[in-house]
Amino acid sequence: xxxxxxxxxxxxxxxxxxxxxxxxxxxxxxxxxxxxxxxxxxxxxxxxxxxxxxxxxxxxxxxxxxxxxxxxxxxxxxxxxxxxxxxxxxxxxxxxxxxxxxxxxxxxxxxxxxxxxxxxxxxxxxxxxxxxxxxxxxxxxxxxxxxxxxxxxxxxxxxxxxxxxxxxxxxxxxxxxxxxxxxxxxxxxxxxxxxxxxxxxxxxxxxxxxxxxxxxxxxxxxxxxxxxxxxxxxxxxxxxxxxxxxxxxxxxxxxxxxxxxxxxxxxxxxxxxxxxxxxxxxxxxxxxxxxxxxxxxxxxxxxxxxxxxxxxxxxxxxxxxxxxxxxxxxxxxxxxxxxxxxxxxxxxxxxxxxxxxxxxxxxxxxxxxxxxxxxxxxxxxxxxxxxxxxxxxxxxxxxxxxxxxxxxxxxxxxxxxxxxxxxxxxxxxxxxxxxxxxxxxxxxxxxxxxxxxxxxxxxxxxxxxxxxxxxxxxxxxxxxxxxxxxxxxxxxxxxxxxxxxxxxxxxxxxxxxxxxxxxxxxxxxx
Amino acid sequence: xxxxxxxxxxxxxxxxxxxxxxxxxxxxxxxxxxxxxxxxxxxxxxxxxxxxxxxxxxxxxxxxxxxxxxxxxxxxxxxxxxxxxxxxxxxxxxxxxxxxxxxxxxxxxxxxxxxxxxxxxxxxxxxxxxxxxxxxxxxxxxxxxxxxxxxxxxxxxxxxxxxxxxxxxxxxxxxxxxxxxxxxxxxxxxxxxxxxxxxxxxxxxxxxxxxxxxxxxxxxxxxxxxxxxxxxxxxxxxxxxxxxxxxxxxxxxxxxxxxxxxxxxxxxxxxxxxxxxxxxxxxxxxxxxxxxxxxxxxxxxxxxxxxxxxxxxxxxxxxxxxxxxxxxxxxxxxxxxxx
Lengths: 526, 339
Description:
Helix content of chain A is 43%, strand content 9%. By secondary structure, chain A is α/β, with parallel strands linked by helices. In chain A, strands 4-7-10-3-11 form a 5-stranded parallel sheet. Chain A has a two-stranded antiparallel sheet with strand order 1-2. By secondary structure, chain B is α+β, with helices and mostly antiparallel strands. Chain B folds into 2 domains: 4-202, no CATH class; 221-338, no CATH class. In chain B, strand 3 (248-253) and strand 4 form a beta hairpin. The radius of gyration of chain B is 24 Å and the shape is elongated. The A-B interface holds A 1-7, 20-24, 26, 28, 30-40, 273, 276-277 and B 13, 16, 19-20, 22-24, 26-28, 64-65, 68-69, 71-72, 75-76, 106, 108-113, 115-117, 119-120, 150, 153-154, 157, 162, 164-165, 168, 255, 257, 259, 270-275.
């Protein structure tokens, strides 16, 4: 006899009605469908797309599984009502559009894009439970997911992580290649969970890095090719407070970092229910929101197909151009980067002392110790697309980028707490609020972008587009004309002006274009 | 509890039923045990009385489905609400006992789909479910299969005022047994069924014409006013405009649009996509509009802002009201429709 199960109820489709959505065509069958189901336990609309299924999974998790009433990914279609709270006059906004909890949404987007997510936060905040649910969404049973979960501990060896050579082969093998390995089952799964990864010893972390970065495991010259997978790692502390310092390269492999927020005591009744009922949400995941391998693959392809409009791409470019430039790190133009001084061990504040020309408050680059890695930019593009897809859109909106960006750069863009920006009393809380600071950085960058009117007047973009049309059939006269224009643009950008990150990156691009035309001209004239 | 069959069921499945109640009580904040008691005593028990003396194999599936459905009704707050409780009671006391043969075939399905139907009807007015039940009660004894039961449901939904089911219902009527169709329309045996159905198909106001028999109305008649300002709980953010778009009556208000379905049984507004109507414009010809100014029943409106016509229907809107005014035309007023 079936048990009445409200936990198994999914949110009704469409979970994200659009304000000007195409009205649902009238269907006579609607007369007999509604809130009471169909009576034969088949409530899913099989024709619904994967994005709808993903949204239903999100709403099932927030409504039934993880108690996370923190709607920190805010969307508004009209100005929201705002309140000033406390002595700090922090703003509380009431979003006017469907908004989301990052703690649920980002792991779900990680699942959809088969990328890597790190949960941080104190013990007992649902980090492992959330990862477990993602495993179940991937089609595994609770037992399978729990057994495959890797628990970091100080004695964890590479063999614990990857597998063991077969003892018989160790004794009888004539060559290393003859030793067969009993690979750990989790390596072949499409959802991989590593609990407390900052408790894993450094050597084992390196083995983990190979699996995470290159998708294979190697032992005794034997290689195990892993399938594409969504990775979930948990850590109680992201600032090196675990047993071992996490190696930098491993951190950079993580696409998004999500903070588990505190439990709101007003939801104690829901905990009480679970205690009284013996309810474990992970045991009650409705089958309708479990994804097959094909669905996951198709969803990843559909996400990649989401468009990023040129205007938004330009704003991302502009944002990332602020941070790498460091004027006094080198004499040669190309080496004027923070990475140059970092590699040579020169402290940031030593260079800052020399740097007395620029407005260090206005320059966003002065707020960080490093620049943005290529991998993090790829994560940003991927997650922006995934968020747009989740919201049922074919193209990324600026707000999608703005919402995703802080979680992508959380552990990759490091604040220079000695910079004048953080000395201002009104910015003091940004020292601990990384998400808020990164969002502030992006907003400031967009304001600067608007101030420079780069949406309408962007000579470097024009020259770049001109070059992208190709050099076939370009006459020497035209090439010289373009060279002259590039030189004139460089002159306008640098002569007699302070250097900022975005100008530096523009100049590097212009130099690149100049070199390409110069080579072409040489070839034409030879 | 009067029903022995239900008593037996509760004895056999006591543990499971208790578990279900405890589980639902914690899962739904709306759940009230008193409502469930009310449902069991007033709805399930009377229905199960009809199955007393039958085997457990026959009665238990119905009791199980009924009990689960009761939990759902209570969880969704249907028993608390007076309006809903009325037709739930009527359905379980008067409607389900007459279709026990169908319920036994698929009890979960019948209970779920009937309640879904009520939910759908409620979207068009609180009186509709009771109206539907009274229509259905005319034919319940004649329904011997689940398909026929659903067909009759469509027809009664149409006759209860859901005008957008007109085409579906007319198609269903063509295939339904004659005695059922006659019972639905209260037709005596001497009336030719085919010509009656043909008349219904040909004129959306035919119900009235058949009542007056030889009556061909000689002038426009105000049939209905539909829609209200959204600030008063209606649909329209702005005074609406009517148009005929490829033979379908449409109503536009601001950035929203609806298909208007109207006939002798009722009228409904079904949301439509405004983007499909970009090339459609309402008729605001002053000469055409002034032709309607002296119609009886429209003296409260001094001027009209748009008009849309079909061969048998005229729809008017005015800046003075948010309501859409629906008129039936004198027969064969094709001239206006062509304009």
